[in-house]
Amino acid sequence: MSEFPPDLGADLNTRSIPIIRATEPTPRGQVIVLTGPMGAGKSTIAAELAQRLGWQLIDTDELIVTSHGEIPEIFVERGEDYFRNLEAATINRALDGAANAVISLGGGAVLAEDTRKRIGQLDTVFLSVNEDIALERIGGGANRPVLAGNPQENWRRIFQQRLPLYRQTSTLEIDTSDKDVAAVTEEIIQHFQLA
Prior knowledge:
Blueprint: E1 31-35, H1 42-53, E2 56-59, H2 60-68, H3 71-78, H4 80-96, E3 101-104, H5 113-119, E4 123-128, H6 131-137, H7 151-169, E5 172-175, H8 181-191
Parallel strand pairs: 1-3, 1-4, 2-3, 4-5
Helix pairs in contact: 1-8, 2-4, 3-4
């Protein structure tokens, strides 16, 4: 995993976090972005893809955890709006410094318009999954704040709300429900002619 610039969000004692805007788009072809709902396999597939290509792996959720603590705690202590601003700033910083990188985004990253604009210019893969497999993969959603209450119903509602955004920003869509990591990784490599 790569180091991430330590100055991101240095002043988090305030209620608002500035959204860092890009001055130049990331060059096309040097970055593969993975989006999709919780349980689609974004982090796992990103790690395999980065390893196969010999590229840098950037998992934006991991960057947030490393710099700011566990995501469920951020939701509880600061709220979803705070987290979404932090997430958008983290993604912008990651994209600004990315070259020959595979970037895994959190499931809600596409909610930010700036993020959608940026990843829409890149080779972005929407990893979809059916709800039963997703919930199985994430252990029923117990540690996912946005699924609290009724995980299956909430997963389905969130997925349907975000589905048009995933599709709007992606170059390739792969259903990971009944594919293994190696098969999905190979499909991405072949699609973007990376081998």
